[in-house]
Design a protein that fits this description.
7-stranded mixed β-sheet, 9 helices, Peroxisomal Thiolase, Chain A, domain 1, 5-stranded mixed β-sheet
Length: 352
């Protein structure tokens, strides 16, 4: 069981960036009827999404978020010892996007930098890794960057996924803090269900070819290529309502805390119907579950920090809050973290 415990380590700052362009899911379009669009919005809670133009990548959104955070917090660039970039929409197949961001942000050449290919669970995984580095006395600060331009890899013509995803980037600063209490993380994976959310072609198992980039029409009327994302909605629903609550309970038991002890529950922003279902099933008061997916859509691993920046700045600025966060999805992979947010600096949302 992958349970990790840390003490005297915490989040000191968070920022996020989104594209300026808004896509209204209820606006008339050529691929969804008014009835279909309303059904998606009702089920998911996603009314609006942010869509990056062709010249903006996930790294650009992360760069903007990191630049603003480091500048406003007056962080010396030389004190950043590790940069972690989490994304499934990197700039290139190689080199790692983190290396490019290390130079672009003016960080030291002695700063370790690496990419992690994770989706919806990525923020919690990334925090756990960052906390582990901070246990070493030679490490000062960790910069965790989460970025996705999911609208570039899903077809707007797909009935299952066309209205779900948005683009965003976030930066989180982690460092040792004697006032931080114990933090607990649970990390999980089940590769037997890898096909529930995937891009079938374009990698090295099934390389790009003239055939993989041709649009195909499916039985439900969806139109997509083999190099665009697919999702088994019913399979993901079953996974989420079964495995995620079990993981939350496992973390609470490890911490000796109860639902009542948690101030804020930060669910990955994927589907309001599903997360409301989990909250009600577990007797979690809905007022403890903030949402921002109505404005931004599913932004994969960026959704939790984006939710913090968008919805919780006022709540977190004046007092310590005990937070339980859980990310779940592509992999299948899921992770839960319980930690105290000890008045971190939260920057204003950036629009590019």
């Amino acid at each position: 069981m992958a349970i990790f415990k840390y003490s005297e380590i915490g989040i000191s700052g968070i920022s996020a960036a989104v594209p300026k362009e808004k896509y209204n899911n209820l606006a008339p379009n050529d691929f969804f009827t008014e009835k279909e669009a309303k059904s998606v919005v009702k089920m998911t809670g996603i009314k609006e999404r942010r869509v990056a133009p062709s010249n903006i990548c996930a790294s650009d959104l992360c760069y903007a978020a990191a630049e603003q955070l480091l500048r406003e917090m007056a962080v010396e660039r030389a004190t950043i010892d590790v940069l972690i970039f989490i994304s499934q929409t990197p700039d290139y197949r190689m080199p790692a996007t983190s290396i490019i961001l290390q130079n672009r942000l003016g960080l030291s050449k002695s700063c370790a930098a690496f990419d992690i290919n994770l989706g919806c669970s990525g923020y919690v995984y990334g925090l756990c890794f960052a906390y582990s580095f901070c246990k070493h006395k030679t490490i000062n600060k960790i910069l965790l960057l989460n970025g996705e331009t999911r609208t570039k890899v899903y077809s707007f013509k797909d009935k299952s996924t066309g209205l779900l995803f948005g683009d965003a980037g976030a930066a989180t600063l982690i460092e040792r803090n004697k006032e931080a209490g114990e933090s607990i993380f649970s990390l999980n994976a089940d590769g037997s269900r890898y096909h529930f959310i995937m891009i079938p072609a374009g990698g090295y198992r099934y390389p790009s070819s003239p055939e993989t980039v041709k649009e195909k029409i499916f039985e439900d009327g969806s139109i997509r290529t083999d190099e665009q994302g697919i999702m088994d909605g019913s399979g993901v629903f079953d996974f989420t309502i079964q495995d995620v609550p079990q993981d939350i309970i496992r973390v609470l038991n490890e911490s000796g805390r109860s639902i009542a002890d948690i101030d804020i529950f930060l669910f990955h922003q994927a589907n309001k119907f599903i997360t409301d279902h989990i909250a009600k099933k577990m007797d979690i008061p809905l007022e403890k579950v903030p949402y921002s997916l109505d404005k931004f859509g599913n932004t994969s691993s960026v959704s939790i920090p984006l939710n913090i920046v968008s919805e919780l700045s006022n709540q977190l600025s004046n007092e310590v809050k005990t937070v339980l966060m859980t990310g779940f999805g592509v992999g299948l992979s899921w992770a839960t973290g319980l930690l105290d947010l000890n008045r971190p600096y939260i920057s204003k949302l950036i629009e590019l």
